[in-house]
Amino acid sequence: MVEGIEKLYVDSDLEARVVFTRISDPCDNVINATIDNFGAKNALAYFGNIIKQKDDIDENVLLAYRNAKKAEESGVDIDAKNPSMHVGKKAVNIENRLGMVDLKRDLLATQSLKSAIVTPESDAWVKKFDDLGLDKPYCLWVRGSLDALMHADDKAISIVGTRNMTEKGARIASELGSELSAQGYAIVSGGAIGIDASAHRGALGGQNIAFFAGGIDSLYPSINADLYDDMLRTGGTFVSESPPLASPRRFRFLQRNRQIAAIGRAVVVVEAPYRSGALSTASHADALNRPVGAFPGPVTAPTFAGCNKLIRDGRAVLLTSSEDVIELASTFSELRARKPKKKAQQQLPTAWKGNKKGVKAVTLDKARELGDDEAHVFDTIPLKSGITVPQIVERTGMGTVRVQRVLGRLELNGFVRENESKWYLK
Q1: CA–CA gap between residue 369 and residue 223 (Å, rounded)
Q2: Tens digits of residue pLDDT in 47-79
Q3: Residue 351's beta-bridge partner residues?
Q4: Cα–Cα distance for residue pair 332/321, rounded to 1 Å
Q5: Backbone phi, then psi, for 374, in 5-degree steps?
Q6: Between β-strands 416-419 and 422-425, what pairing exists: parallel, antiparallel or unpaired?
Q7: Which domain holds residue 358?
């Protein structure tokens, strides 16, 4: 009997979706397709039955699972060339992550936070998230006003931009938050420092929604703690697809952006340089046929270079006021009815680390040049502390030998170092 296998057999679809947030990363098409086919509770049990190798599982799926298991034990990855192999590999991945599952802990944490779990079966589910298809969240943790979330499904504006904002960007974001909120729009952003925080401050007292990359129990960044308190005190709402106690891993910030893009009747980029997570949100919005607008800035201002490029390339409408934003949002229904575009490509963020020469940036893009496995493992390593191989196995779902080989390649290429059985950013 596989240790922890009983965790895959639960009493409801809601409980199953909570478990899926622990055993799978967001945007997993195999998981969502299986849920769509069987329902969440039965989909979870289906993977449990594959791991148990029960007789009622299709023999091609069981063969794929066994082959994937052998490959993992040898430290090799194998291409999934058919649906059975995709499912078999996913079952192995889930088996490696069983140690992450503690349903009782997650449900108690949800209760202690006075929050709610919203699923696609819930009345409060954001129907616009269905436009994400197989990238839609398994479920959402919502802290604060559920009414605000339901209102946002009908009337929301997403405001995004750089963390390193100028005085001009801060003023625009705050005024938009205030003026659009007064017009009855829910203001949606990511709760970050910079443009996000300015938009949220402007919207205090209105429908004010922040989407987070980590669990809603430890909001990030902590420098915005006073803002978060003010938001909750004035009827704001915090949302995350990550369970309580989940730390905000770097990939999750970009995965979070697709939700900010999907929920808005328009996505507004206030101020953004060429390389910015806000441009990732704009790309998601474009792929989802959401109206995108941007405020222009001086050609000499690096923090507006991304906005200017969006406008120049015809990917965003030039905006000058909240009235322009409302006009842009009026095109939502027309655009949404069009055929969805190709899924947006994720631009990976910068991870910061320190060394004897000072602080320098190391991008996940460089790790990804070595391969997807390298990027996945690199992303699990904390910025300021170490992590063990078993912990990486649980977080990635990859086998021990495979993780060790990936760490070796990352070490050889100067990304990580080992010290006393723990791995650190180098």
Answers
A1: 33
A2: 999 999 998 899 999 999 999 888 877 776 677
A3: 362
A4: 18
A5: -65, -45
A6: antiparallel
A7: 350-425
Angle at 49 between CA 43 and CA 50, to 5 degrees: 95
Q: Which of 79, 101, 123 is the last residue of a domain?
A: 101
Whole-angstrom distance, CA of residue 270 vs CA of residue 43: 42
Token output for 268: 């507004």
| 192 in the same domain as 287 | yes
Which pair of structure tokens corresponds to residue 356?
A: 């004897």
- Encoding tokens for residue 209? 């929604």
The angle formed by the CA atoms of residues 396, 402 and 403, to the nearest 5 degrees, is: 50
Is pTM beyond 0.70? Reply is: yes
Token pair for residue 267?
A: 């996505």
CA 294 remoteness from chain centre? 23
How far is the C-alpha of 144 from the C-alpha of 146, rounded, in Å?
6
Contact 50, 88 (CB under 8 A): yes
- Please report whether residue 368 resides in a domain: yes
| Tens digits of residue pLDDT in 249-292 | 777 888 899 999 999 999 999 999 998 889 999 999 999 999 99
Q: How many domains does the chain have?
A: 3
Residues 86 and 153 in one domain: no
412, part of any domain: yes
Say if residue 221 is preceded by a cis peptide, omega within 30 of 0. Answer: yes
